[in-house]
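Re: beginner question about structure tokens

> Can someone show what the tokenized structure looks like for a real chain? I only ever see the sequence side.

Sure, here's an example I had lying around. Input first:
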Amino acid sequence: MGALEGKVAVITGSTSGIGARTAERFVAEGARVVIAGRREEKGRQLAQALGEAASFIRTDVSNETDVEAMIAHAVNTFGRLDCLMNNAGSGSGYQEIATVDLKRFDEVIAVHVRGALAGMKYAVPIMAKQKSGSIISVASVNGTRAGLGGHYYSTAKAALIHLTRCAAMELGEKGIRLNSISPGPIATGAFAKSSGLEPHDEGKMVELAKSAIATVVIPRYQPLPYVGTADDIAQAALFLASDASRLVSGVDLVVDGGMSAGWPIAAVRDDRARFFKTFQIKSKPGIEAGSEA
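And the corresponding structure tokens:
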């Protein structure tokens, strides 16, 4: 028996990347899954590949009517709702405060925060009747660590993490658990969008992302020498959707290879040595700091 046997899940933004891999993982573990996203052709292809355990509905999470229809589709198609995964999102581009586009900021908030809140709004009444449910929102390490992501994206993810905590405090008495997942850099086609590229060949974009992460992120920012993949996040989502996490709520599960814990020793080893060498040099009369004498 799979870890999600008999459960029904809705995954937004699941036509590619993390969402698509999570849908595959959930079905493999016995769940029936609603694939929700804007790319209709990709969504229908994935649903067809997954068979009778999957159904696609075109959904723009920034549109409340679409979100309401998405949740209704899950119940009408599969009879219940056990898990909602708020995964729909956009890339993290760089902006400067003096030139921010407030309309674009509103659009990012609409997808990452408002869309997740709308999902909660329509999922909660169903889960409350069942007296159980798991709502998972995909955030980011950029929601807690500044300087790496763009202002719009980072602010939206910070809000999403706190929204999840707030909702967890309200809904616990109804048997509903809410948690967020904060990935570090994950090799998906989303990096293409952030870089201004059109991801026509998603496989190629994933390989480019892997190369970039391996070159820049490891070991300067991330201590573990592995490039994160969509499956790493799908595995975390599987845990939070399953009964194995029945006592886990209000948690932001960080999946970033140790990146947000601090500075990898490989990145600071030379600086540490230089720091202590300065003390040694200064302790010797007549020798200036920085001298090799």
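Each token stands for a local structural state, so reading them left to right follows the chain. The beta strands are 8-12, 32-37, 54-58, 83-86, 133-138, 176-183, 252-255.
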